[in-house]
Amino acid sequence: MQRPNLMGKNELRIVHFLISVGFFIGDSLWRLGQRILGSKPGSSCVVLTYHSVPDGQKEAFAAQMNTLLALTEPIPLDRVPPLLPGRRYSAITFDDGFENVINNAVPQLEKKGIPATVFLTVNYLGQTAGWWPASAPERLESIADPKRWRQLPGELISIGSHSLSHPFLTAVSETEAKRELCESRLVLEDLFKRRVTVFSFPYGEFSAELVRWCRDAGYERVFTSLPGNAFRNMDDFVCGRVNVRLTDWAWEFRLKILGAYRWLPFAISWKRRLKKHL
Questions:
Q1: Which residues contact 178 (CB under 8 A, 6 or more apart)?
Q2: Would you kindly state where each structural domain of the chain is located, as residue ranges?
Q3: What would you measure as the largest C-alpha separation in the chain, in angstroms?
């Protein structure tokens, strides 16, 4: 018998927020202690994940970018610079390639000089996002065609792969998974005449085998949906990201870009282990 879910989405969001507040306080005290003892705390870099930026939320996105600039130094994913101790960095990513990202987000990024990476789902370029649930507004939104992406400044907006068809890669055959990884990169490189070196896993689902196949396919970094402190080692191949909503509370967004949600992967892992023993 399936166990009942004791908390709804709003309750769970509040719990996550409160735990992150506590995590942030502890982390801040730790960093302060390091400074008092005469050593600089390590660098911090959080990679953010966006999807759609609808017309009615342009102002919310602009406000989040203002906060991002006030608290962190944005860096590009395709050419990560050396991260200096004691500094907070951030990186912006967009999954899927919605046209409203070009219309509503890119102008703000250009205005503020914030680099970003867009992970494109190749077979849906110029179509609608049919893999989204029927109840999601994103399902009816358009994915921009290659021509529109080519018109963007390459020094500011880089391109990554989000597969050919946005499948659950952990649920398809090895042959199909490798095709999704390899062909999507090759098609994008042909379309944009530049190297494509980064990949984000559809639905955030990945495995050790998929990571290995990504290396074999020629990617230099891959990105999950698990929050974490990215680029702690400059040769890290697997990097986490934190999902951001344009409806995030102001302090919720602040905590995300300051790395206070990076406890979540440990909680998820603990929960999975606990379920195995129940």
A1: 213, 216, 217
A2: 9-276
A3: 56
Residue 1 confidence (pLDDT): 36
Residue from 222, 227, 197 nearest 212 by CA: 222
Query: Which residue is it, tokens 């290396």?
Result: 215
Q: How far is residue 222 from each of residues 47, 81, 265, measured CA to CA in Å?
A: 12, 17, 17
Residue 92 CA to residue 48 CA, distance in Å, equals 5
Q: How far is CA 22 from CA 129, 240, 255, 262, in A?
A: 37, 21, 10, 12
**Consecutive H or E run containing 225:** none
Residues 117-176 pLDDT 10s: 999 999 999 999 999 999 999 999 999 999 999 999 999 999 999 999 999 999 999 999
The structure's pTM equals 0.91
**Structure tokens given for 97:** 């390639």
Which CATH number is 9-276 given? 3.20.20.370
SS3 74: strand
Lookup result for tokens 């960093």: 31
For residue 234, the tally of other CB atoms under 10 A from its CB is 9
Strands 88-96 and 73-74: parallel
Helix residue spans in the chain (DSSP H) = 9-36, 58-71, 99-100, 106-112, 146-150, 174-192, 208-216, 250-257, 264-276
Closest CA to 197 of 94, 115, 78, 91: 78
pLDDT digits (tens, 9 = 90+) for 233-269: 777 899 999 999 999 999 999 999 999 999 988 877 7
Q: First vs last Cα of the chain: how many Å apart?
A: 12
